[in-house]
Structure formats: C-alpha cells, structure tokens
Amino acid sequence: MFNFFKKKQPKVLSTQKSEVKSSLSSEQIEQIEQNINQLLQQIDQTDDAVVLAALCEKAGLLYCQLDRADFAIEYLEKSLQHKKSIGEGYKALMNLYNHKRADAAQNGSMHDIDFWMNKMDSMRNIAKQVTVQRD
Q1: What is the pLDDT of residue 15?
Q2: pTM for the structure as a whole
C-alpha cells in the first residue's frame, strides 16, 4: 500500500556529455562554439562591469548547453563577480553546483561535498543580498 520497504531506483544525473551532445547536432554544437568565441572576444575588449556580467553569463549558459561544466562555472561566477543577480545564470550555476555536490557524494568525498555546499551557501547569500536591494 505505502511501499515503505520497496527499494528506490537511484536517480541518474543528466550531466554526462554523451547525453547532451547526442541531443545537439554537430551544426548546433559548432554554432554554439562560434557564439562562445565571439563572446570571449567581446569580454576581452570590454571594461564595463555590467556589460562584462551579461557577456560572461551568456558564455556560461552556452557552456552549459555544451555540458562543459567547469567552463560554465568559471564564466557564471565571473558574471556574478561583476554584477550580482538571480537570473538564468544564477539558476544554472546553482544547478551545476548541485550536480558537482551530488557527484562528490557518489564518490564519497566529504571534502568536495563541503566545498560545493559552501558554494551553494554563498549563492543563497547572493540571493538574499539581491532581494534586500530590491526592497
């Protein structure tokens, strides 16, 4: 009736490159990579913090589409350094941190679990700061 003793199936994280890349055509991947290269050139030529934040967020989100988590994290963090916001980049970064934490838990690495939990806590603090600024 309640299935208290039924064994639960483990959840499969969709962070494997083969899954993401198989959903994108080679033309789509190539177009995303070209867009990233254009954004990186614009980032190098810009000093305005607000513009840098937007460009870094776009680059990070494109890296997410290609499932290049480390690059995505790098650029999404840069975006938040230039301008704190809780938009799409914030959500994607929280999701990436959560996947990294889950991977660390699967590997049994308490140090990595703590690291990613601290990153998630800092993101929650950003959300609080942005919310307070709006009031």
Answers
A1: 40
A2: 0.79
